[in-house]
UniProtKB/TrEMBL annotation:
One of its GO terms (molecular function) is structural constituent of ribosome. Residues 76-114 form a coiled coil. It is found in: Mitochondrion. GO terms for cellular component: mitochondrial large ribosomal subunit. InterPro entries: Ribosomal_mL52. It holds the Pfam family MRPL52. Belongs to the mitochondrion-specific ribosomal protein mL52 family. Its main location: mitochondrion. This is Large ribosomal subunit protein mL52. The keyword Coiled coil applies. Keywords: Coiled coil, Mitochondrion, Ribonucleoprotein, Ribosomal protein, Transit peptide. GO terms for biological process: mitochondrial translation.
Length: 127
């Protein structure tokens, strides 16, 4: 036993080589094929198993939403509201930019018209 411990202490590279552990997970799903077909990266993120209810009533009553369906619906509503808000902000910014451009152009025209007026004896000669 003493000889084994002296060997390990004498060669620390052997100890370091044994301590390496791979921490990355292996992807079992072929992502290139899924991307080429236009499918989502996660096959369980979208589809009939996640979008439709788990069961239906035979008499035609509507089934209640599942907890994850309800969370997904609320998240989609929040995203839609954010899209509408950002779209209106974008429209406002475009209109404001056009208005400021027109105001700057009008100010330039006003300055040019005021600059080029004849003054003094030149004004009297023209009359």
């Amino acid at each position: 036993m003493l000889k084994l411990s002296t060997l390990c202490l004498a060669n620390p590279a052997v100890i370091n080589a044994q301590r390496h552990v791979a921490l990355s997970a292996v992807r079992c799903v072929d992502q290139g094929w899924r991307a080429a077909k236009g499918l989502p990266e996660n096959p369980n993120a979208f589809g009939p198993l996640t979008n439709f209810p788990d069961y239906t009533y035979l008499d035609g009553r509507p089934t209640p939403l599942g907890s994850n369906q309800h969370k997904r619906l609320l998240k989609q509503q929040e995203i839609a509201a954010k899209i509408v808000e950002l779209s209106s902000e974008l429209d406002f910014a475009k209109e404001r930019h056009e208005r400021l451009k027109k105001q700057a152009q009008a100010e330039k025209q006003r300055i040019i018209q005021n600059k080029l007026k004849p003054k003094g004896h030149l004004l009297l000669k023209k009359k």
